[in-house]
Amino acid sequence: MSGPLVVLVGPMGVGKSTVGQLLAERLGVAYRDTDDDIVAEVGRSIAEIFVDEGEETFRAIEKRAVRRALADHDGVLALGGGSILDADTRALLAGQRVVYLAMDVEEAVKRTGLNTARPLLAVNPRKQWRELMDARRHLYEGVATAVVTTDGRTPEEVSQVALDALELKEA
Question: Which residue, 9, 41, 34, is CA-closest to 137?
């Protein structure tokens, strides 16, 4: 199998970065986050890109970043929460080891505070988070090799469940 050893998908605030770094450490591989790639490439935060250029422009940048990362990264890769909205990206994820990190809205509130630093949650965050998840849940599930619920679990517990689900051994 070419591409990353593990790809993490899921909503904002679910812990993809934290769990991804733990998985990479436990597997003895590099960690990469496409959101970090975008910020490095564009030189602005994701929130600034959304505000200044709009979601459509951001999604085009994100699609390119994900395609590059899937092609040239062989460690643990975390994708931005909305990256699975793109059909081409979902097709590229076919055959990859993809872990969908899932959480419910109450866990999202605890973790993120559903604060306004999230451009898609600026107004009525709970309602918008639920609507985002209603629109995205089936897409996350559709690309997932394994679904790992993060509610009430530590990042260490989540990473262990992901390793077990994928039948991967630590380095």
Answer: 9
